[in-house]
Input
Amino acid sequence: MIKMAMLIIIGITAIVAISISLAGMTYKPNNVNALNETTTEVEIPSKIHEHPNAITSGPLLITQSQYKIYENIFMVVSGLEPNEKGNIRIFMPDGRLYKTLEYDGSLKTSFNSYFKPDTSAARKICEQEELVGIWTVLFDNDAYPPLHFEIINEHLNGPEFRLAKSC
Output
């Protein structure tokens, strides 16, 4: 009887431990959306020397001036004044709006964001070549000078890899 009770306790403990482990492995943060974009509220030091290839305009820092196809594009906004509020708009090489970031210095003075340009039926980006070229980043009302970064015609996963057609 005692052996049976010990086996039951050990079994229940093992099931609970496995359940907790599996729950931890399947956790997805709520801030990831279906378009491969993430915005977090982690403050990152905005020291440009930490990003030697960074480009900046006002409170915005983009960590590199050149990216490969399917590479994450990291942006850091820091040092917003409480009266600064608006949008940062990111345009593809053909002039289409790709992404908009809202900012409000009265709510938070710093944040970071990243996105991974990809083919998308929702955005009508059919071929990976549509991502290649000079991208433009603009602030509402031209609050700060525009920024430009480039996506070159090299895939992050090698020359033979291609993104799936979406249209």
Remarks:
- Helices lie at 2-25.
